[in-house]
Amino acid sequence: MKINLLTLSLLSCTLLAQKSFKEIKKEAEKGNLISQFNLGLMYYEGNGTSKDYKKAKYWWEKVAEKGNIKLQHFLGQMYYYGEGIPRDYSKAKYWWTKVAEQGNPKAQHFLGQMYQNGEGMPKDFIRAKFWYEKAARQWLPEAQYSLGTMYAKGDGVLKDLTIAKYWWEKSAEHGYKVAQYNIGLMYENGDGGAKDKTKAFYWYQKAAEQDVAKAQVALGSLYMNGDGIQQDIMKAKFWYEKAAEQEDAIAQFNLGLLYDSKSISEDKTQAIYWYQKAAEQGIADAQYNLGALYESGEGVPQDYSKAKYWYEMAAKTGDTGAKQALKDLKQMMMKK
């Protein structure tokens, strides 16, 4: 992961333009904090010298130890992602703890993730929750989502869908797209409260507009079934296509169904195209339908070998219809 240095670079671009590498290095060695920062920046960017992330880190740590919070956070990222230096979770934790204790919500969230995932330390759900709450109460949507997920899964806390819903909705309100999809799902299923198709539609649409494929499928299905909204097959198709373009297998299968029926202009060629896409991703119903089209020769040259192949693929998943179709096809092929 390339880390953005723009905010740090802006602090010293004028000074860098006025002084040479040698001058800055000399001042840095005398303990000048600005020069130490600038020297680190020059090593990091290869400005006036060859790139050297280890030397950049060396000089930046000197500045960070004096309390520069932005640099402390940046060093945490360098160590966490292994940006030009060996990945070191312990040092990432060291720097992010310093920043988190000064109230920075992003560092608090990063730290919470490290404790939850056990990165460089044993898993500690209590500390993860502590830091997530700190960041969530500062309205960081990622932290609100992470905190909600702990309650949704029961990770280190008693499973509580009502609390999960509360935090996911807060995150969704701040534009976090994964939370928008999940809160839509909760409203559709009635998890953590009463079912509300109107709110489900609202949040699915928000997430779908941010290109969340699962939300696009869910929104398409609401339109397809007229579930809580007026049925609109063309809008269903629109959203299925959006998700299918992102290789969502369910969306691809649903598009195949649309083209295979009279819901829109029937087009067996398109049906086969989308069934094949979904079938190749393991969707048993798509495999079965594809087999049936090859067997019948609808929209494609009749091909019993391909029909047999796709029936077999679906049958392997336990699909009883595919097992019977495969049996019937084999008997027919033997007679011929």
TrEMBL record:
Protein name: Uncharacterized protein
Listed SUPFAM superfamilies: HCP-like
Family annotation (Pfam families): Sel1
Domain of life of the source: Bacteria
